[in-house]
Amino acid sequence: MEKTLVIIKPDGIERGLMGEIISRYENKGFKITDCKMIKADREILEKHYAEHREKSFYGELISYMTRGKVLVMIIEGNNVIEIIRKMHGKTNPLDAEMGTIRGDFANSATENVVHASDSKESAEREISIWFS
What is the pTM of this model? Predict the structure, then answer.
């Protein structure tokens, strides 16, 4: 069974969207096998977002992700990585279709409600960072 890491980001928590978002995953038949709500520190976020370190948005992203709690989940199911990424929609909500999580709820490319692993390799790496 394929696994992915999903994070409901601070804006999703602050706006009370957890239940709606989790329902969408469960309605697709996916199973949450582990989860935790935490206030992520800079160290874990720097590991998670290491590939973005040199990008212009990196500092803003780290500041945003440390401003409040996040819900981090391991979700499993058939083809879960691809399907959840489609459910989330494009990173920038202006480009995301209505009916996707970002299309329905996100306010900006940074405050875009959710994160999901983009490959099996990323899922393994991210799960080891958040659940070691």
Answer: 0.95
